[in-house]
Amino acid sequence: xxxxxxxxxxxxxxxxxxxxxxxxxxxxxxxxxxxxxxxxxxxxxxxxxxxxxxxxxxxxxxxxxxxxxxxxxxxxxxxxxxxxxxxxxxxxxxxxxxxxxxxxxxxxxxxxxxxxxxxxxxxxxxxxxxxxxxxxxxxxxxxxxxxxxxxxxxxxxxxxxxxxxxxxxxxxxxxxxxxxxxxxxxxxxxx
Length: 191
Known about the structure:
Layout: H1 22-30, H2 37-57, E1 62-68, E2 72-79, H3 83-86, H4 91-103, E3 113-118, H5 121-141, E4 146-148, H6 154-164, E5 170-175, E6 182-187
Parallel strand pairs: 2-3
Antiparallel strand pairs: 1-2, 4-6, 5-6
Helix pairs in contact: 5-6
């Protein structure tokens, strides 16, 4: 059976960009609705129950914890082999996080970004992206005119762009179409 690549662009009913997309991330960063403590508590319970259901459906024995951080509601899943929860290249955990962002605050006025982590995967991934970006910068500064990083999702591309935004001698931009869109690290005009 063959497979085909599909591009899905999601918009909310009012034309607003969906969370988890570059446009959605930009829209979310501009919004800062008031936080209602009761609604935040309800969202915390929803996130915990959602992650427990997902872990159970995957046949995992896992402990779920949820903490409220300044910019996000963070749900952590910890247990035995979290590889199935994380998925290949983080695809499963990213999908779980995307769905959590859509269901946890549904019907509530309070809004916060939802982050789903498992066994510290998110921090390890950020460190790997930073190391990859550093290697690309080294190559560009050593004489290469540009370095194309492997394709990444919008969240990972944003991490690289932000990490390198103040780096002297290089600039970053994205090229390509999803799911093959990638960050380009290039020598800047003032290098």
